[in-house]
Structures are given as structure tokens and as C-alpha cells.
TrEMBL record:
PANTHER family documented for this protein: METAL-SULFUR CLUSTER BIOSYNTHESIS PROTEINS YUAD-RELATED, MOSC DOMAIN-CONTAINING PROTEIN
Membrane-spanning intervals of the chain: none
Residue ranges annotated for the MOSC domain, each copy included: 16-156
Record-given protein name: MOSC domain-containing protein
Lineage: Archaea, Methanobacteriati, Methanobacteriota, Stenosarchaea group, Halobacteria
One Pfam family linked to the record: MOSC
UniProt cross-references to PROSITE patterns, sorted A to Z: MOSC
InterPro entries for this protein: MoCF_Sase_C (IPR005302), MOSC_domain (IPR052716), Pyrv_Knase-like_insert_dom_sf (IPR011037)
Organism in which the protein naturally occurs: Halobaculum marinum
Amino acid sequence: MTPRVDALYTAPEDSAPMVDHDEVSLVPGGIEGDRYLNGTGYYSPYDVCEVTLVDAGALDSIRDDLGIDLTDGRHRRNVVVRGADLQDLLGATFRVGDPDAGAVLRGTRPRPPCAHVEQVAGEDGVARALRGRRGGICADVVAPGTVAVGDEIEVVEGDPRSEGRRIVDRLRESLGR
């Protein structure tokens, strides 16, 4: 499955409901119209992620396993991705969208949930549900561009640690180990 953008969200200010979009503009520092680019996010200016990504499969699991439906954006992440292991994007540079008009991002770190996400979501268990790999990742904008729902995601420069693991796995597979 080719990794794709499943949904896009921004919030204009701290604690405001997430607004879904068909398309957003990524610029140096984040997403136009988003609270963290505007400097009005809950953690501004202390713990800012320019862009946050979360796995659609993780949101599906949270809904199926815990009965918490976060598909309305209450997860407080900007980009919902389907078909990619977000851990593979940590340390990697990746393009989202058209090679000429899309944006280029670099995965920087995991994005664990905080108690604030649960307060804003208005449902017990949201922060706990987003723990571990379900919380998503942070990314910095390397090159600005337009990103739309349905856009493909392509790694253009892998994280050297991940690339090394893939080479070892392929060698083991070819040797039957």
C-alpha cells in the first residue's frame, strides 16, 4: 500500500476545535492557520512541533479496541497518514504530495500525548489511548508546499539507522536466516 494523507487538521488557537481541510499550505515553521505557527498553541513556545502526524491505523485500533473514536480530529494531530509506519519517518526526509508543488518534511521525534489533549477532547482515556507508538510524530518543514488529502508520501532520504536495519534484514532473508 502506498502511504497517503488520510485527513488534514489545524486549530487556529489553543484548545480550539480541530478544523478539517481538503488541502493545507506548509510553510517554514508549520501549517498556515495552525496554532503553533501562529504562536497560540498550548505549548507555544516551549514544546513546538511544526507539523504533527498520526497513523490512521492507530486511530482505527483505538476505536476498535477501546471504543474511542478520534476520527473527528480530537487526537490534535495535523496530518493523518494511512499505509506508513511513522517510526520509519523519524530521522527521514519525505515528500508529501506532488514533486513540484508538495512539501518536504523531516521526521524529528515521537509526539506523546499530554493531559491537555484529553481535556480538549472531553473524553476520559484519550491521552492513555494515544500513548506509545499511537501518539504520532513531529516533523519540520524542509521545503514549503501544498498538501492535500489523498497525496502520496515518499521517503526521499531515509534515516541511516533505518536504512541499515533494512539492509541487514534483506541480507538475512537472502541467506535464509
